[in-house]
Amino acid sequence: MDKNELLKYMPDYYNGVYEMEELLKAQSKGLYQFDGEINRTLLNEFIIQADEKGISVFEDQAGIKPDLGASLETRRNNVLLRLLPPKPLTKRYLNHLLEIMNLKSHVDVDYAKRLAIVEAESADITPDKVNSMKYMLNITLPANMIYDIKINLAQATVQRELYFEVVNTADSYVIAQANTKQAPFENKTEAHLYIGFGTNIQTDTVVGYEDQNYKE
Q1: What is the rounded CA–CA span in Å between residue 185 and residue 199?
Q2: Which of 109-118, 137-146, 151-160 has the lowest mean pLDDT?
Q3: CB burial class (10 A; 0-12, 13-18, 19+) of residue 103?
Q4: Domain locations in the chain?
Q5: Which residue has the higher pLDDT, 119 or 180?
Protein backbone atom coordinates (compact mmCIF):
# COMPACT_ATOMS: atom_id res chain seq x y z
CA MET A 1 0.00 0.00 0.00
CA ASP A 2 1.19 3.48 -0.88
CA LYS A 3 1.65 6.00 1.93
CA ASN A 4 -0.74 8.34 0.07
CA GLU A 5 -3.18 5.60 -0.92
CA LEU A 6 -6.32 7.48 0.10
CA LEU A 7 -5.50 10.39 -2.20
CA LYS A 8 -6.20 8.10 -5.15
CA TYR A 9 -9.84 7.86 -4.08
CA MET A 10 -10.38 11.56 -3.39
CA PRO A 11 -13.27 13.00 -5.46
CA ASP A 12 -12.35 15.45 -8.19
CA TYR A 13 -14.26 18.32 -6.61
CA TYR A 14 -11.77 18.25 -3.70
CA ASN A 15 -8.82 18.95 -5.99
CA GLY A 16 -6.96 21.98 -4.74
CA VAL A 17 -8.64 21.91 -1.32
CA TYR A 18 -5.68 22.02 1.03
CA GLU A 19 -7.48 20.83 4.15
CA MET A 20 -8.90 17.70 2.49
CA GLU A 21 -5.59 16.74 0.88
CA GLU A 22 -3.68 17.06 4.15
CA LEU A 23 -6.37 15.13 6.01
CA LEU A 24 -6.20 12.23 3.55
CA LYS A 25 -2.40 12.24 3.67
CA ALA A 26 -2.45 11.93 7.46
CA GLN A 27 -5.03 9.15 7.36
CA SER A 28 -3.09 7.32 4.64
CA LYS A 29 0.05 7.27 6.78
CA GLY A 30 -1.89 5.83 9.71
CA LEU A 31 -3.50 3.23 7.47
CA TYR A 32 -0.09 2.35 5.99
CA GLN A 33 1.30 1.58 9.46
CA PHE A 34 -1.46 -0.96 10.09
CA ASP A 35 -1.40 -2.45 6.60
CA GLY A 36 0.73 -5.43 7.65
CA GLU A 37 -1.51 -6.17 10.62
CA ILE A 38 -4.60 -6.00 8.41
CA ASN A 39 -3.11 -8.47 5.92
CA ARG A 40 -2.05 -10.83 8.71
CA THR A 41 -5.54 -10.74 10.20
CA LEU A 42 -6.93 -11.67 6.80
CA LEU A 43 -4.45 -14.53 6.30
CA ASN A 44 -5.23 -15.92 9.76
CA GLU A 45 -8.71 -16.72 8.48
CA PHE A 46 -7.18 -19.55 6.40
CA ILE A 47 -5.57 -22.62 7.96
CA ILE A 48 -2.85 -23.03 5.33
CA GLN A 49 -1.60 -19.43 5.71
CA ALA A 50 -2.23 -18.82 9.40
CA ASP A 51 0.67 -18.01 11.71
CA GLU A 52 1.12 -19.39 15.23
CA LYS A 53 -1.35 -16.94 16.70
CA GLY A 54 -3.94 -17.71 14.05
CA ILE A 55 -3.51 -21.49 14.16
CA SER A 56 -3.91 -21.48 17.94
CA VAL A 57 -7.44 -20.11 17.44
CA PHE A 58 -8.30 -23.01 15.12
CA GLU A 59 -6.77 -25.50 17.56
CA ASP A 60 -8.93 -24.11 20.34
CA GLN A 61 -12.04 -24.40 18.17
CA ALA A 62 -11.24 -28.01 17.19
CA GLY A 63 -10.18 -29.05 20.69
CA ILE A 64 -6.64 -29.91 19.61
CA LYS A 65 -3.78 -29.74 22.09
CA PRO A 66 -0.55 -29.36 20.09
CA ASP A 67 2.50 -31.39 21.02
CA LEU A 68 5.34 -29.57 22.68
CA GLY A 69 7.84 -28.45 20.04
CA ALA A 70 5.55 -29.24 17.08
CA SER A 71 6.30 -27.15 14.01
CA LEU A 72 3.81 -24.69 12.55
CA GLU A 73 3.36 -26.87 9.46
CA THR A 74 2.49 -29.91 11.59
CA ARG A 75 -0.03 -27.90 13.59
CA ARG A 76 -1.64 -26.65 10.38
CA ASN A 77 -1.96 -30.18 9.02
CA ASN A 78 -3.48 -31.47 12.26
CA VAL A 79 -6.12 -28.75 12.23
CA LEU A 80 -6.78 -29.29 8.54
CA LEU A 81 -7.40 -33.01 9.00
CA ARG A 82 -9.70 -32.41 11.95
CA LEU A 83 -11.86 -29.78 10.24
CA LEU A 84 -12.06 -31.22 6.71
CA PRO A 85 -15.54 -32.50 5.82
CA PRO A 86 -15.79 -36.30 5.55
CA LYS A 87 -15.47 -37.81 2.08
CA PRO A 88 -15.48 -41.33 0.65
CA LEU A 89 -12.13 -42.97 1.32
CA THR A 90 -10.40 -43.59 -2.01
CA LYS A 91 -6.81 -43.74 -3.18
CA ARG A 92 -7.31 -40.47 -5.05
CA TYR A 93 -8.57 -38.80 -1.90
CA LEU A 94 -5.56 -40.01 0.12
CA ASN A 95 -3.17 -38.61 -2.48
CA HIS A 96 -5.13 -35.37 -2.44
CA LEU A 97 -4.68 -35.11 1.32
CA LEU A 98 -0.94 -35.63 0.97
CA GLU A 99 -0.81 -32.90 -1.65
CA ILE A 100 -2.68 -30.24 0.32
CA MET A 101 -0.57 -31.09 3.38
CA ASN A 102 2.57 -30.43 1.32
CA LEU A 103 3.82 -33.98 1.88
CA LYS A 104 5.66 -34.98 -1.29
CA SER A 105 4.71 -38.64 -1.39
CA HIS A 106 2.42 -41.10 -3.13
CA VAL A 107 0.07 -43.69 -1.67
CA ASP A 108 -0.91 -47.01 -3.20
CA VAL A 109 -3.29 -49.61 -1.82
CA ASP A 110 -3.03 -53.41 -1.76
CA TYR A 111 -6.72 -54.23 -1.44
CA ALA A 112 -6.19 -57.95 -0.86
CA LYS A 113 -3.95 -57.32 2.15
CA ARG A 114 -5.84 -54.21 3.29
CA LEU A 115 -2.53 -52.38 3.18
CA ALA A 116 -1.82 -48.74 2.31
CA ILE A 117 1.74 -48.13 1.10
CA VAL A 118 3.10 -44.59 1.20
CA GLU A 119 6.34 -43.96 -0.70
CA ALA A 120 8.50 -40.85 -0.53
CA GLU A 121 12.02 -39.73 -1.32
CA SER A 122 14.41 -39.09 1.54
CA ALA A 123 15.30 -35.67 0.09
CA ASP A 124 11.67 -34.53 0.41
CA ILE A 125 10.82 -35.97 3.83
CA THR A 126 11.81 -34.95 7.33
CA PRO A 127 11.00 -36.73 10.62
CA ASP A 128 8.40 -34.06 11.30
CA LYS A 129 6.67 -34.81 8.00
CA VAL A 130 6.73 -38.54 8.72
CA ASN A 131 4.84 -37.83 11.94
CA SER A 132 2.30 -35.83 9.94
CA MET A 133 1.86 -38.81 7.60
CA LYS A 134 1.25 -41.13 10.54
CA TYR A 135 -1.28 -38.74 12.04
CA MET A 136 -3.13 -38.46 8.75
CA LEU A 137 -3.21 -42.23 8.18
CA ASN A 138 -4.28 -42.97 11.75
CA ILE A 139 -7.24 -40.62 11.41
CA THR A 140 -8.24 -41.45 7.83
CA LEU A 141 -7.81 -45.21 7.46
CA PRO A 142 -10.37 -47.62 8.92
CA ALA A 143 -9.49 -49.78 11.93
CA ASN A 144 -9.15 -52.97 9.85
CA MET A 145 -6.54 -51.46 7.53
CA ILE A 146 -2.81 -51.10 8.12
CA TYR A 147 -0.24 -48.86 6.45
CA ASP A 148 3.44 -48.93 5.57
CA ILE A 149 5.66 -45.89 4.98
CA LYS A 150 8.64 -46.43 2.69
CA ILE A 151 11.38 -43.83 2.39
CA ASN A 152 13.57 -44.26 -0.68
CA LEU A 153 17.15 -43.23 -0.06
CA ALA A 154 18.57 -40.71 -2.47
CA GLN A 155 21.16 -42.01 -4.92
CA ALA A 156 24.34 -40.03 -5.40
CA THR A 157 26.49 -40.39 -8.50
CA VAL A 158 30.17 -39.53 -8.19
CA GLN A 159 31.92 -38.73 -11.43
CA ARG A 160 35.67 -38.50 -11.53
CA GLU A 161 37.27 -36.45 -14.23
CA LEU A 162 40.95 -36.29 -15.10
CA TYR A 163 42.17 -33.08 -16.65
CA PHE A 164 45.30 -32.96 -18.81
CA GLU A 165 47.06 -29.76 -19.56
CA VAL A 166 50.29 -28.77 -21.26
CA VAL A 167 52.42 -26.64 -18.97
CA ASN A 168 55.20 -24.26 -19.84
CA THR A 169 58.79 -25.40 -20.20
CA ALA A 170 61.69 -23.45 -18.76
CA ASP A 171 65.05 -23.42 -20.53
CA SER A 172 68.09 -21.82 -18.92
CA TYR A 173 71.28 -21.06 -20.88
CA VAL A 174 74.62 -19.92 -19.48
CA ILE A 175 76.94 -18.85 -22.30
CA ALA A 176 80.59 -17.79 -22.06
CA GLN A 177 82.68 -16.43 -24.89
CA ALA A 178 84.74 -19.10 -26.69
CA ASN A 179 87.79 -18.79 -28.92
CA THR A 180 86.61 -19.93 -32.34
CA LYS A 181 90.17 -20.21 -33.62
CA GLN A 182 90.83 -23.19 -31.42
CA ALA A 183 90.84 -26.61 -33.01
CA PRO A 184 88.82 -28.70 -33.06
CA PHE A 185 85.81 -26.38 -32.65
CA GLU A 186 82.31 -26.88 -33.98
CA ASN A 187 79.49 -24.40 -33.89
CA LYS A 188 76.26 -26.39 -33.36
CA THR A 189 72.69 -25.21 -33.40
CA GLU A 190 70.22 -27.41 -31.53
CA ALA A 191 66.46 -27.30 -31.76
CA HIS A 192 64.41 -28.82 -28.94
CA LEU A 193 60.78 -29.89 -29.39
CA TYR A 194 58.84 -30.69 -26.23
CA ILE A 195 55.72 -32.80 -26.55
CA GLY A 196 53.82 -34.17 -23.60
CA PHE A 197 52.59 -33.23 -20.19
CA GLY A 198 54.29 -32.00 -17.09
CA THR A 199 57.23 -29.72 -16.44
CA ASN A 200 60.43 -29.86 -18.42
CA ILE A 201 63.41 -27.91 -17.10
CA GLN A 202 66.61 -27.98 -19.14
CA THR A 203 69.87 -26.23 -18.37
CA ASP A 204 72.55 -25.86 -21.07
CA THR A 205 75.98 -24.58 -20.10
CA VAL A 206 78.57 -23.62 -22.71
CA VAL A 207 82.01 -22.71 -21.39
CA GLY A 208 84.67 -20.96 -23.47
CA TYR A 209 87.94 -22.77 -24.32
CA GLU A 210 91.31 -21.59 -23.11
CA ASP A 211 94.16 -20.91 -25.55
CA GLN A 212 95.68 -24.35 -26.09
CA ASN A 213 97.52 -26.09 -28.90
CA TYR A 214 95.75 -29.14 -30.23
CA LYS A 215 97.37 -31.74 -32.42
CA GLU A 216 95.77 -32.31 -35.79
Answers
A1: 33
A2: 151-160
A3: buried
A4: 5-45, 69-152
A5: 119
Query: How many CB atoms within 10 Å of residue 119?
Result: 13
3-state SS class at 174: strand
Provide the pLDDT confidence category of residue 108 given band limits of 50, 70 and 90: very high
pLDDT interval class at 155 (50, 70, 90): low
Give the CA dihedral 14, 16, 20, 22, nearest 10 degrees. 150
Instruction: Provide the residue type at 67 as one letter.
Output: D
The DSSP secondary-structure symbol of 158 reads -
Q: How far apart are CA 176 and CA 95, in angstroms?
A: 88
The domain made up of 69-152 is a member of CATH 1.20.272: no
Which amino acid makes up residue 182?
Q
Q: Where are the beta strands (DSSP E) in the chain?
A: 105-110, 115-121, 146-152, 170-175, 201-206
Q: The pTM is what?
A: 0.53
Closest-CA residue to 79 (of 51, 99, 98, 55):
55
